[in-house]
Amino acid sequence: MASMLFKQMTIIGVGFIGGSLALAAKRAGVVKTVVGYGKKRGDLHKAASMGAVDRYFLTLPKAVEGADLVVLATPVAAFEQIISAMAPYLKIGAVVTDVGSVKGELVYKMESLLSGRAFFVGGHPMAGSEKSGIQSAFPTLFGKALFILTPTSKTDKKAIEKVAALCKGIGAEVVKIDPIKHDQIMAVVSHLPHLVAYSLMELFFHPRLIKSDMLSFAAGGLRDFTRIAESAPNVWHDIFLLNKTAVVEAIDLYQETLEKMKKAILAAEKGDEDALFKILNNAKSVREKIRP
Amino acid sequence: MASMLFKQMTIIGVGFIGGSLALAAKRAGVVKTVVGYGKKRGDLHKAASMGAVDRYFLTLPKAVEGADLVVLATPVAAFEQIISAMAPYLKIGAVVTDVGSVKGELVYKMESLLSGRAFFVGGHPMAGSEKSGIQSAFPTLFGKALFILTPTSKTDKKAIEKVAALCKGIGAEVVKIDPIKHDQIMAVVSHLPHLVAYSLMELFFHPRLIKSDMLSFAAGGLRDFTRIAESAPNVWHDIFLLNKTAVVEAIDLYQETLEKMKKAILAAEKGDEDALFKILNNAKSVREKIRP
Predict the structure, then answer these.
(1) Pairing mode, strands B123-125 and B146-149
(2) For residue B130, what pLDDT is reported?
(3) CATH label of the domain that carries residue B166
(4) In chain B, whose CA is at the least distance from the CA of A289?
(5) What residues make up the domain containing A160?
(6) What percent of chain B has a predicted confidence (pLDDT) above 90?
(7) Which of B150, B178, B206 delimits the end of a domain?
(8) Does one domain contain both B202 and B169?
(9) Do residue B210 and residue A241 have CB atoms under 8 angstroms apart?
(10) How far A225 CA sits from the closest chain B CA (Å)?
(11) pLDDT in tens, A217-227
(12) What is the mean pLDDT of residues B255-276?
């Protein structure tokens, strides 16, 4: 069992990720007490009955009182308001982290809102985005997952090392990366794939699509795209908006790639089959570099 | 056990689909003898040792001799040449079917090449496109899968009913659909999703992508796309080319949908969030209509 890192961890938003993190941290013995904060008493009660939280509050000041670690696990769009509301009640020197999928400018904003009171460490566990709700939480969610931390030049060294130790304690692999670069990378490896999957579903509403009971034939390739199209719309709405610059740039590059693919098909028809074969074979080489 | 439908079924191309079909048909008792044809003796020997074929030949005339059912299970691009080469050796009144992913004009061509000698029935089992090779074949592949048959006005009624009975015998659900419409539907529900997945991999070769070890972060959404990017490049090369009209049309509609998504993100930024929410919620409604 890992050593105790925090006496009191307060989870703001005890849903799937927040709840899983609480269960994992308790099981690993890296936190002593977990306090939950949320808007729905029923969810908090469920979290308590699952052993994810030791006690819970529906008011922010009480929830963060005495915490040496506060984890933001609500939708990202709510972070700024929550930080502003809770800052005056934080213990001096507390560590605040988050589990949001977007970092970038938000990290600098959080850092400045907490400046002089608490230490902010941006975090992003890459795990299970399509699930939601405390009822789906489980303690092994982070096992072997990447847990990205996004230090800036102002990040407190001790704070980030304690958060990193917690991440490792729950079985995750920690990677540190600049917050802006994080968003550029995520736009390509995560946000674009989600957008692509959503768009494949939206295609079925295209007015020029031939009228047919297409979806009853959708057993093939399409089904693989549906897991991520199950992800909560409000979560992805926020992600696409908060990372819009990098996401729109990724869409543009992807459109160019689709155009290249289309040209390769038309070129192959005229006898030049190299371009199409090259693209299809490239796919294999990329796949082999992706973590299993 | 279903009743015997064919005395001798010859499989042309004993790979993953052909081998699985042979194993399934024998197990269901709907064929008495299975004969294999292929180019590699090792693969045919493996098929025999697995019990998929009772005997095999490396020459087409011998393989089809006496068969009352011949199944084309090679890559689609080879069909025309194979049909032409084997036609003179077919038993009069034999049934010829195939398991190719593209139908359309090809069905009319096969039909005319066999006219007066044998009956052609176009077939397309929707199962397991990413696997390949006889070593991966298994008899339950078609259980609950859709098996599409593509009759034309010239299709022999008795022939198609016997093929349909075989499909049902191996556990598949039979759907009959016009060959041209089949290709239009497949372009959207299967070929486009494969192309989209291949393109997401190809994106990593885009020269304007930021330089970074992106793929080590690809645990998220991207991984769901990799199963179909594992599909054999030569198979999909043929499919994209043979169905190029419908595939290129599907790419065009998809690009319009991505553009709509991009506009929705930019509109949401300016305060109009309805369009983006609508797309994300639509995705859910589509997913629910897709066969599990």
Answers:
(1) antiparallel
(2) 65
(3) 3.40.50.720
(4) B215
(5) 6-179
(6) 76
(7) B178
(8) no
(9) no
(10) 7
(11) 876 677 777 77
(12) 93
- Cβ separation of A215 and B286 shorter than 8 Å? yes
Number of domains in chain A: 2
Does B215 contact chain A (CB < 8 Å)? yes
pTM of the predicted structure, to 2 decimals: 0.85
**Six token digits for residue A181:** 């670069």
B151, part of any domain? yes
- Residue B15 forms part of a structural domain: yes
Confidence tier at B1 by pLDDT (50, 70, 90): low
Contact check, Cβ <8 Å, A261/B199: yes
Give B-chain residues touching A194 at CB under 8 angstroms: 221
Per-window interface: B 86-115 vs A, CB < 8 A: none
In a domain, A292, yes or no: no
Is some CB atom of chain B closer than 8 A to the CB atom of A48? no
Cα separation, B80 vs B116, whole angstroms:
17
| CA closest to B194 among chain A residues | A221
CATH of the domain at A223: 1.10.3660.10
Number of Cβ atoms within 10 Å of the Cβ of A146? 20
In a domain, A1, yes or no: no
Query: Which segments of chain A does DSSP mark as H helices, in order?
Result: 16-28, 41-49, 60-64, 79-86, 105-114, 157-169, 179-186, 192-202, 226-229, 233-242, 244-269, 274-287
Residue located via tokens 């922010």? A60
Q: What is the ipTM of this complex?
A: 0.84
List CB contacts (< 8 A) between A220 and chain B: 126, 129, 186, 189-190, 193
Residue with tokens 């074949």: B137
For the segment B226-252, the average pLDDT, to the nearest whole number, is: 87
Of B119, B145, B178, the residue at which a domain comes to its end is B178
